[in-house]
Design brief:
Elements lengths: L56 H4 L15 E4 H7 L5 E2 L1 H7 L7 E4 L9 E4 L1 E2 L1 H9 L3 E4 L8 E3 L2
Parallel strand pairs: 1-3, 2-4, 3-5, 4-6
Antiparallel strand pairs: 6-7
């Protein structure tokens, strides 16, 4: 059985509207567009937000605030428990390991501190939450925080 075999059957489906196929169809002549005018023309109609020449709402309202969305840096987050479950025996987890395992999709990765760290492990990422750093360092591990635009990692050990 396939999806197209399920109800409604092909003969029960409503056909598409065929305009301009004679007077008997009910949509002949002007094809349901009335007589003349802007909306009767090919490509006719007004653009979204057009109010007939009146100053449109999006231009009447004041623009306020600072918009920095073009330059906003967003990180894809992953929790410690999920990260350590994906690499149960590994002592060093690099960005390449995280990408190859498919744990994140985008380039910038941030590690969050949910879960417990029971073994010393060295983790490499662009950002770490403070709780994640504390847990990794308390277990005797190492945190390698990379810079987003540089190749050289910034290492923090205590």
């Amino acid at each position: 059985m396939r999806l197209n075999d399920l109800y409604p059957f092909p003969e029960e489906r409503k056909g598409r509207k065929r305009v301009g196929r004679g007077a008997g169809s009910g949509l002949g002549g002007t094809s349901g567009k009335g007589h003349k005018g802007q909306n009767a023309r090919s490509g006719g109609g007004v653009r979204p937000g057009f109010e007939g020449g009146q100053m449109p709402l999006q231009r009447r309202l004041p623009k306020r605030g600072f918009k920095n969305y073009l330059f906003k840096v967003t990180y894809e987050v992953i929790n410690l428990d999920r990260l350590l479950a994906a690499f149960p025996d590994q002592k060093e987890i690099t960005l390449e390991d995280i990408y190859s395992r498919g744990l994140v999709k985008s380039a910038l990765v941030k590690i969050l501190g949910e879960g417990e760290v029971t073994r010393p492990v060295s983790i490499e990422a662009f950002r770490f939450s403070q709780s994640a750093k504390d847990k990794i360092l308390a277990a005797g591990g190492e945190v390698k925080e990379l810079l987003a635009d540089a190749e050289e990692p910034a290492t923090s050990e205590e």
